[in-house]
Task: inverse folding
């Protein structure tokens, strides 16, 4: 179960930049170890990513070992560093319906990651 969450806001970020970045930091498309939920999409200010993690330590390991080095390797990826908000999860509820489209995670939507 997730105990830690993070929200990244990339000012003026785009879907194309996100897709290029994900190809480098998650080359197989699967979630990294310890991440239980990943959602991303356009906002009025640019691009936003919300991720839930099993622990703060799992997030920090991914950030330090994969994400930060990956950002340095992406040509025209998301603008780094993002505005970041972190939080300890107090409550988590999951609905019974999946939703779409979710092209990065496939037609199954987010439910395959949080069942």
Result:
């Amino acid at each position: 179960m997730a105990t830690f969450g993070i929200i990244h806001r990339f000012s003026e970020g785009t879907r194309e930049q996100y897709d290029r970045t994900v190809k480098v930091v998650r080359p197989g498309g699967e979630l990294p170890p310890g991440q239980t939920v990943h959602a991303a999409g356009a906002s009025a200010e640019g691009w936003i990513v919300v991720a839930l993690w099993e622990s703060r330590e799992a997030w920090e390991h991914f950030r330090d070992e994969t994400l930060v080095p990956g950002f340095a390797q992406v040509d025209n990826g998301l603008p780094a560093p993002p505005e970041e908000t972190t939080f300890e999860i107090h409550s988590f509820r999951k609905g019974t319906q999946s939703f779409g489209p979710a092209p990065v995670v496939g037609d199954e939507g987010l439910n395959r990651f949080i069942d």
